[in-house]
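We now fix the convention by which a protein and its fold are recorded. These numbers are not coordinates but entries in a learned vocabulary of local backbone shapes. A record is reproduced here so that you can trace the correspondence yourselves:
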Amino acid sequence: MTLVVLGIDALDPELVNADEHPSLTLATHESIATIDSSAGEPSTHELWPTMITGLRPEDHGLVLDDGVAWESPLLRYGSRVADHLLPDDLQTRIGGWLLTRTDEDAFRVPATYYEDNDIETVFDGREAVAIGVPNYVTDSDDEDREHQLRRHMGELFERDADAKGGHRSADPEKFYERCLEMSMIRIARVRRALRSRRHELVFGYTSGLDLVGHVSYDRPDLQRRAYRELDEFVGELHGDLGADDELLLVSDHGLQEGLHTHEAIIAATTASLVESVDGVVDVRAAIEAELDATDHRPDDRETAAVEGSGNEVRDQLESLGYL
């Protein structure tokens, strides 16, 4: 048995419905509470560490107002200088701006951060794999296609304080294609991990929907199209589930008219997976309850039986240049 958790950044509970998006709503789905950052809106930098630890941002320590993407190696020295020279509110605004600089490696705090700070995560003691989870990087040298595309958007995704969504794109259609490619490859990697039958927990993440949402404030058709395509991608993942596997979808916030909203969503193939989840701080406990209730550790015979089909997925990804 495998529990698959797919994080879809900015999946908005008000923009999905079971008739149009059966794979984004699954057997059951609910709106859940999120947490606003010091900037006044939910922050990706803070919320995924919250979901994997069950701790609020001030407790796990990865918070927007302590300098967010000062994690960039190029800016660590600047962070130390800023602590002495810049007011706190200005540091926060600069940190928020840095998070939108797609040529910087945002959200790349190493997994060792948690052990170094005595913080437990949902991955501890599990046969688990994390695929692209923000601020939980198990190998800093490992970069997949989503990382590559996000870092090289250039004028396709630029910060614009005067724009309604805070960003603009020189070519929204081309940007859309890049973002959906990002989501496609991440979900394909999750499918590959599931089909390998080597993990009890597969936790993947994609940011493509969030990026599309930030530039579609005057092109709502692009956001609607992204939801339809994401539904198809997740449908393919759902089709890979075995009879005893479970799928959990979760977002960190919603996004409408280019701006983050203050509700997230959780959806699952089994109602019991979401019953105890009122907010993002409850996600870790729900995952662990499912894993503890039933033995999800991979069976050697099961692994051998599906190894060939799993390798086919990997071969396809490699032939397309995604791995």
Observations:
- The first strand starts at residue 3 and ends at 8.
- The beta strands are 3-8, 28-33, 128-131, 158-159, 167-168, 201-206, 246-250, 254-256, 259-261, 263-268.
